[in-house]
Design brief:
Layout: H1 2-42, E1 43-47, E2 61-66, E3 98-102, E4 110-117, E5 122-126, E6 129-132, E7 135-136, E8 138-145, E9 157-163, E10 169-173, E11 187-188, E12 193-197, E13 214-215, E14 219-229, H2 242-245, E15 253-254
Protein name: Signal peptidase I
EC number: 3.4.21.89
Keywords: Hydrolase, Membrane, Protease, Transmembrane, Transmembrane helix
């Protein structure tokens, strides 16, 4: 009798252990599915890899990209499956938006730039001034900038604040007046495409150069919030450097 009770108790404990393990597995699976849904449909984390968007975005900024801002294309999904063409639930981006998109010559690569030209727009840069449809974008000197990482040139770089006709305003850098990107031909943006430029105007591979016009299908989303930022070329894994290199003033900063 005692042996039977003992066996029954062991079986019950084993069953409970298996049940508890299965519950843990289910919780993990649910959490992973939720993470996939959030990343696919809502927000995607993105790290700034270069200085092309200084002074607005800095190397070491970690931000969230709002993926439902412009609707969804195959590039919105993990591994970019060719399930459909074009965009669904599409909405038009605005001039001045900071956009993450797939690099047209190689869609495996993500780029982040500011959208300055909509379909049908005429875009040109003359003597460092941006022209949209023949009208210069308002531009005024707004102090100086100096990087805290590999892009520190040792000098203070002039900052110029631009204001689009829709009221969007942002800072740009003009490190070397008279460079090839400071005087361009006039670009006419085709239907279904956009023209992108980096805020660091003399150090940005963008639609003036090899990026070209960006198809609507290549848009991933709009940069919305900086949730973390590390200066001095600090890698995320170097936790011991966080206290001295964390950019406290950029935490949870809305991207403009």
């Amino acid at each position: 009798m005692f042996a039977d009770k003992e066996k029954s108790g062991v079986a019950e404990k084993t069953e409970k252990a298996h049940g508890g393990l299965w519950e843990n597995v289910k919780v993990i699976i649910q959490a992973l599915l939720l993470a996939v849904v959030i990343r696919t449909v809502l927000f995607q984390p993105f790290t700034i890899p270069s200085g092309s968007m200084m002074p607005t975005l800095l190397v070491g900024d970690y931000l969230f990209v709002n993926k439902f801002s412009y609707g969804y294309s195959k590039y919105s999904l993990p591994f970019s499956p060719d399930l459909f063409s074009g965009r669904i639930f599409a909405s038009e981006p605005e001039r001045g938006d900071i956009v993450v998109f797939r690099f047209p010559p190689n869609p495996d690569i993500d780029y982040i730039k500011r959208l300055v030209g909509l379909p049908g727009d005429r875009i040109q840069v003359r003597d460092s001034e941006l022209y949209v449809n023949g009208v210069p974008v308002k531009r005024e000197h707004n102090g100086f900038f100096r990087a805290d990482d590999q892009y520190d040139t040792g000098d203070d770089v002039p900052v110029f604040r631009e204001t689009m006709d829709n009221g969007v305003t942002y800072d740009t850098l003009d490190t070397r007046p008279g460079t090839v990107g400071d005087n361009t031909r006039e670009f006419i943006v085709p239907e279904g495409h956009y023209f992108m430029m980096g805020d660091n105007r003399d150090n940005s591979a963008d639609s003036r150069f090899d990026v070209g016009f960006v198809p609507a299908e290549n848009l991933i989303g709009r940069a919305s919030l900086i949730f973390f930022s590390l200066g001095n070329d600090t890698a995320f894994r170097e936790i011991w450097k966080w206290p001295t290199n964390l950019r406290w003033d950029r935490l949870f900063k809305v991207v403009e």
